[in-house]
Amino acid sequence: MTTSGTTSFNLTVNEIVETAYDLVGGEFITGWDAKMARRMFNLLLIDLQNRNQPLGKLVEVDVSLTTGVRDYDMNSDVIDVMHAVLRRSGVDTEMTRVTLFEDHNIPVKAQQSRPFQYTVDRQRDNVSLRIWPTAENSTDVVKCWVVKKIEDVTGARQTVDLSSRFQPALMFGLAYFMSFKRPDMDAQKRQEFKQNYEESLEHAMTEDRERADFKVTPVVSRPR
Questions:
Q1: Is the model's pLDDT at 222 over the cut of 70?
Q2: Which pTM was predicted?
Q3: Torsion angles phi and psi, residue 70, rounded to 5
Q4: Number of domain units in the chain
């Protein structure tokens, strides 16, 4: 027997919603049902991204530095800065991330030199990258790996802004979220949706990971 020869299977938002409705029982027939389902879908995407950073939402961006400037606002779709290096004359030097409180303790915040550390100020509407020392020139560039938001679901015929490997988790997660709109839903059935969501999401996150080896070498001080 021959195989299909295709590897492009990908469900639309509407198809995921219809499958979730089948799981909770019944089908949506009104515009309000569709609107409610999209609202639940977007809440589900927020919950998913709160748990981990899908590799597909990691993007490298450049931040051009200005002499003496400490804070740089990132685009509104950026939710965190995971790693940063300072590029000067074609050479990259890794920067160290410090907490807001560690940054607050810096005595001379306006000091100018080669920046070697950064802080991420995650405000309500945007993320600000704060460096120290401030740049001593306007030619250095901070190259960052940032986490971007998952794009909103606004239409039934769209595809989700995630790899298709997350679709089983989306289906069970949406069924779990929508089950709260069914007052007669059996509590055990709702718990099954939650368990299936957690397991499917764990499988997707486990597969969606860096493959590089990670080694930790302890530093042991010898007694004098």
A1: no
A2: 0.80
A3: -105, -35
A4: 2
Distance CA 28, CA 34 (A): 7
Q: State pLDDT tens for residues 163-204.
A: 999 999 999 999 999 998 888 888 999 999 999 999 999 999
Residue 37 shares a structural domain with residue 65: no
Q: 143 and 158, same structural domain? A: no
Residue in the structure block whose two tokens are 């979220």: 177
Range of the domain at 170: 13-52+152-206
Integer Cα distance of 193 and 189 in angstroms: 6
Residues 130 and 73 both lie in one domain: yes
